[in-house]
Structure prediction request, 225 residues.
Amino acid sequence: GNSVTQMEGPVTLSEEAFLTINCTYTATGYPSLFWYVQYPGEGLQLLLKATKADDKGSNKGFEATYRKETTSFHLEKGSVQVSDSAVYFCALSDAPSYGKLTFGQGTILTVHP
Amino acid sequence: DAMVIQNPRYQVTQFGKPVTLSCSQTLNHNVMYWYQQKSSQAPKLLFHYYDKDFNNEADTPDNFQSRRPNTSFCFLDIRSPGLGDAAMYLCATSTGQGSEQYFGPGTRLTVT
Prediction:
């Protein structure tokens, strides 16, 4: 079956530090990959996506590259801000019929001033 | 220009008292999903509709039901809420085919 594994959290950084959140996946087909972000008390927001190997998704300074050879989709940001504090979920979808998402366990990011 | 709307944002119900949560969308998407999320864990899919076709996840308790009267609206009914059903309930939509899902803000359910 499909699975997504994220690095253990929580992650605590100082403002302007470099961020990496690791994500690896197992899938039988050729999945689409996503990063979602969830701010306290809110629903999930799509942060970025990639639909095929070597695609790079980017948004709001965050980037992730679809690496088929290492089955990875690591999230990076060069300089985090306090406002980036949230929970980050890596997810995949490879169910052509209805786009079911398989989520990683989530990584809590806290950024201090 | 809200796209996926959930009402209410906060719901308090008593143990065993039926409760209905609602979701509406302005995206005209074919697929609507209901998730249960506890304490910053990953959302757990309960069921989804592809148009009018209902698909239940194998481990979704019978206590949870859903209705989709038209493309825009979808309801989650909890017939006899238990204390363990206290959670955030998230509605999402997509066009299917491996595309991204758009989530609503969620309804926080408290069971007293």
Summary: Chain B touches chain A at residues 4, 6, 31, 40-43, 45, 48, 50, 55, 90, 92, 94-106, 108 (CB under 8 Å).
